[in-house]
Amino acid sequence: VERAAAMRWLSNNLWSMSTSAAGCRIVQDALTFATAEEQAMLAEVLRGHVVDGCACPHANHVLQKLVELLPPEQLQFMVDEMIGHAERIARHRFGCRVLQRLMEHCPSWQTEFLAAELLEASPQLFRHAFANFVMQHMIAHGTVLQRQALVAAMVKDIQRLARHRHGSHVVRAALTHCPRNETQYIIDALRADAAELAELAHHHCGSFVVREMRREGRG
Fold first, then answer.
1. Mean pLDDT across 90-117
2. What pLDDT digit, counting tens, does each position of 127-148 carry?
3. Cβ 17 vs Cβ 10: under 8 Å
4. Per-residue pLDDT averaged across 36-51, rounded?
5. Does residue 217 carry a pLDDT above 70?
6. I want to staple 18 with a disulfide (CB 3.0 to 4.6 A). Which of 62, 156, 162, 213 is the partner?
């Protein structure tokens, strides 16, 4: 009886608690120790708050905890509410983390509409301080077609991307996570101009890309 009363109280106050520093920790602990039925009940309270939660320094942690704990089918409301906002969320210092968790825990078909929005803006997102982490996650967790589309977008401007403070991390992620045929495509593009490659090897960001190329003799 006491547990049920506590859960009802938490449910009634969940959103306000999720948006405070102390309250979000309590909510995360409650979710961790709740039953599957209780987790589902609490998740329903956040319906309609997902986009705002992605932008909140505290509620984003609650959303991430839900993604880690709930089965993907119970996260569909989160995906649905983020459709149409994926690029903006990817650029947000807190929202990017929620997108990354969804890519880690949901099947690719469930996030395909979010991925399509991100792919359309990929040349800009590669270079963004926060969105580049989302793009790295797409490379690691996306479908073959999504990954190939990202590689094709990279190769179009590979020399400048490899020199970019944030974009270079995406190139390195592709060299690490893509299969051999795709990494060779990137390497061939990087090696197309010997003078550019020599300059890249001495660039403060590009040198790390060249090092990844040459790891295990691939470059």
1. 97
2. 999 999 999 999 999 999 999 9
3. yes
4. 96
5. no
6. 62
